[in-house]
């Protein structure tokens, strides 16, 4: 970690890298990947699709809320919605701008939206994601879906959701965490602490 502290990275980037190094090895829900593997895969898919730095950063950080709470990995199996998207958005607010925060904050709503608007989407969810969908409120109503579609970051949140759903491949090769540091630096805001 001392190499991070001596680096030229933004303070927010150093915090993110440290958090993933310290807590990213935990299991990603009931999936066959770790939190870090899931984050790296989502960011890699975003990068490969030609997304800009804010959306790549959002893809990397979309589940950072899971690293911030002390609930067990199997909390959804116990009927607990950890509201990780809200926790992540609050934590990210001091570190990044809305182009990063809003897709993260909305990625759970994007799942509910896609379940309401894409007939095939629900059948493509992994079993842990289907379980968490129930805890998160299930598919949106027609009114909720219309309201969500009108949000400024709707398209970004839906793209992030698709990468999130795909980012569950055991032993997939991705760039290392440090590969995304420059992207985080580019998106970081000056921290007022």
Radius of gyration: 16 Å
Number of helices: 12
Supply the number of structural domains.
1
Instruction: List unreliable stretches of 5+ residues.
Output: none
Beta-strand proportion? under 5%
What is the CATH architecture assignment? Orthogonal Bundle
Protein traits:
193 residues; mainly alpha; Hypothetical protein af1432
Give a brief rundown of this model:
This protein has 193 residues and is mainly alpha-helical. The chain has one domain (2-187): Hypothetical protein af1432 (Orthogonal Bundle). It is 59% helix and 0% strand.
Structural notes for this entry:
- The chain starts with a helix and ends in a 6-residue tail after the last helix.
- By secondary structure, it is mainly α.
- It is built from twelve helices and no strands.
- The chain has helices at about 1-5, 10-25, 35-50, 55-60, 65-70, 85-90, 100-115, 120-125, 125-135, 140-150, 155-165, 180-185.
- It is about 60% helix and about 0% strand.
- It is globular, with a radius of gyration of 16 Å.
- It has a single domain (about 1-185), classed as Hypothetical protein af1432, CATH 1.10.3210.
- The longest helix has 20 residues, at about 100-115.
Layout of secondary structure:
Layout: H1 2-5, H2 11-23, H3 35-48, H4 53-61, H5 65-68, H6 84-92, H7 98-117, H8 121-124, H9 127-135, H10 142-149, H11 154-166, H12 181-187
């Amino acid at each position: 970690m001392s190499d991070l502290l001596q680096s030229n990275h933004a303070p927010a980037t150093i915090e993110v890298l440290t958090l993933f190094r310290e807590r990213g090895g935990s299991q990603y829900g009931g999936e066959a990947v770790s939190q870090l593997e899931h984050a790296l895969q989502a960011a890699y898919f975003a990068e490969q699709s030609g997304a800009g730095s804010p959306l790549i950063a959002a893809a990397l950080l979309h589940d950072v809320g899971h690293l911030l709470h002390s609930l067990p990995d199997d909390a959804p199996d116990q009927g607990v919605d950890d509201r990780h998207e809200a926790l992540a958005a609050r934590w990210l607010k001091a570190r990044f701008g809305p182009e990063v925060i809003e897709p993260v904050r909305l990625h759970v709503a994007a799942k509910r939206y896609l379940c309401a608007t894409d007939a095939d989407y629900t059948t493509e969810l992994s079993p842990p994601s289907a379980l968490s969908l129930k805890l998160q409120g299930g598919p949106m109503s027609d009114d909720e879906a219309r309201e969500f579609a009108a949000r400024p970051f709707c398209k970004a949140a839906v793209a992030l959701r698709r990468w999130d759903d795909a980012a569950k491949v055991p032993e997939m090769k991705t760039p290392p965490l440090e590969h995304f540091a420059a992207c985080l630096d580019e998106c970081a805001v000056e921290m007022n602490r």
